[in-house]
Amino acid sequence: MNKLFLILLLCIVTSCKREELKSEVVLKNEAPKPRIQPECKSIKIGSTLLISFNNKALTDFYKSTKYRTIWQSEENRKIILAELLKSDEEGLNPEDYKVKALSNFEKKSATLNDSDLAKYDVLLTASFQKYISHLTNGTLNPRKLYKNWDLRENYIDINETMTHLLDSDSLADKIEQLKPNHIVYKRLKKALKLINTLPKDNFKPIKITEKITPNDTNPSIVDIKKRLIYWKELQPKDSLTPVYDEETVIAIKKFQVRHGLGPNAIIDEGTIASLNFSKQQRIHQIIVNLERWKWYPKEMGKEYIIINIPDYRLTLIKDQDTLRTHRVIVGRAKRKTPILSSKLTQVVFNPTWTVPPTILREDVIPAILKSRSYLTNSNIKVYDSNGRIVSPYEWQLSQAETYRYVQSPGTFNSLGMVKIIFPNRFSVYLHDTNHRDYFDKIDRSLSSGCVRVDNPLELTEYLLDDAANWNLEKITKILQSEKTKFIKIKKEVSFHLLYWTAWSENNKLIFRDDIYALDANLYNKLRN
């Protein structure tokens, strides 16, 4: 009895010192370290077991517990197991977290010996650490996958997070807070649930030799109607005819809208390509987009611009409300628009355009070789290394890449009338265009990497936020002068150039063409 009393007393004293130890760390202005207080029934963990995992974060965690088990609470164990088992709802793979082995341990937990209890504890911790890491940063590192993705890592101290979770009165709620909170991520999770309610599909690819227009009769229409019924665009029928009737026209238009296609009711190769996607391919597409959203910033900013490259759309959001949207033109597949986050800093009216190296090599030099008048017609001045203007007839191919090529401001300038700058290592920016008719195209991956914005003057007026000095009337006068003018953006507006090809809206699955062909490759890397 005396021994039992001493053990209980020791536990009480240890528990009482818990907050005191935390206070001492804060008073010394040191970085807080994980400090786990195992329950009194904890078991000693041997060093050999920890070494077998070859995981520094895991070893460091148990160092803070004085190498004793910490998952004595059945409630906490079951909360974590439930999270790992349903990790597929987050686009993750439950097999990555040893869920079968953990479930077997839990079933036998009441009869496990000390050695197996230690193994269970360590395996649960290792799996939970991995899950936290995957929730907050994704399974893969985009900085290693892509040269033109420039996103900061969502830093998290795994063991400190584990400590806070264990200290929490509501472990399940705290885990939920680790998940991305952006509306698009939530809509992706909704999309995954929606598509999983659909039955298995076993369709064969549809092939057409020519476009199908309303009232046409075509044998492929029967298979097209079956697809539309499957995707719930068309009501089920007892019999299907090969006639492209009015009801099917309406269904095709709905399908085209959901897939970012022109809702013209013409069944062409683009519409057929979208119809030929299987349920499984669409699930893969949703999963890779859930992964991407774990890479993106957790906090977008109080006011921010977000551009979804495959959707060709700019959205300005303030306090979680969408204030305005603009169509955009993005980089084509050979000159992809980069993925990045930054802040808007400056507006340039009547910008000059210095031709970048890639466009110089691939576009400008070949055009000059065809005709020296290209430079005059394009209003481009050429400067040598001393800053001297080189006339079109002095221009030499051997020196072509040493020259600097600058297009003067004006109506024909490639950047249009305005440029909006945000710091980045790719030298890309938002700008107007002298080809505004391009905004009416469905496929708008047409630029050399920068982003062209429809109605940029209205966006600029909003960003400058100065009705007295920078209203549209005064901006127009500046533009008419054709003199370059730089204006600082005073308000803080974050800027995000991102890439996602799936989501949901109003219980409808939404998809966009994977214009840079990233989805399938990313899924293979995630699951192989």
Characterise this structure.
The chain is α+β, with helices and mostly antiparallel strands. The protein has a domain of 159 residues. It is built from 19 helices and 18 strands. The strands form three sheets. Strands 1, 2, 3, 4, 5, 6, 11, 12, 13, 14, 15 and 16 form a twelve-stranded mixed β-sheet that branches. A four-stranded antiparallel β-sheet has the order 7-10-8-9. Strands 17-18 form a two-stranded antiparallel ribbon. β17 and β18 form a beta hairpin. This is L,D-transpeptidase family protein. Pfam families: PG_binding_1, Scaffold, YkuD. Belongs to the YkuD family.
Quick synopsis:
Helices cover about 40% and strands about 15% of the residues. It has about 525 residues and is α+β, with helices and mostly antiparallel strands.
Output the radius of gyration: 30 Å
Helix coverage percent: 40-55%
Question: How much strand?
Answer: 5-15%
Q: On the 0-100 scale, what is the average pLDDT?
A: 91
State the secondary-structure class. alpha+beta
Oligomeric state:
single chain
Number of helices in the DSSP assignment: 19
Rough shape? globular
Instruction: Quote the distance from N terminus to C terminus.
Output: 57 Å
Count of strand segments: 18
Q: In this structure, how is the largest beta sheet organized?
A: 12 strands, mixed
Low-confidence stretches: 1-32
Family: Belongs to the YkuD family.
InterPro entries: LD-transpeptidase_YkuD-like, LD_TPept_cat_dom, LD_TPept_scaffold_dom, Peptidoglycan-bd-like, PGBD-like_sf, PGBDSf, Transpep_catalytic_dom
Domain L,D-TPase catalytic: 303-478
Pathway: Cell wall biogenesis; peptidoglycan biosynthesis
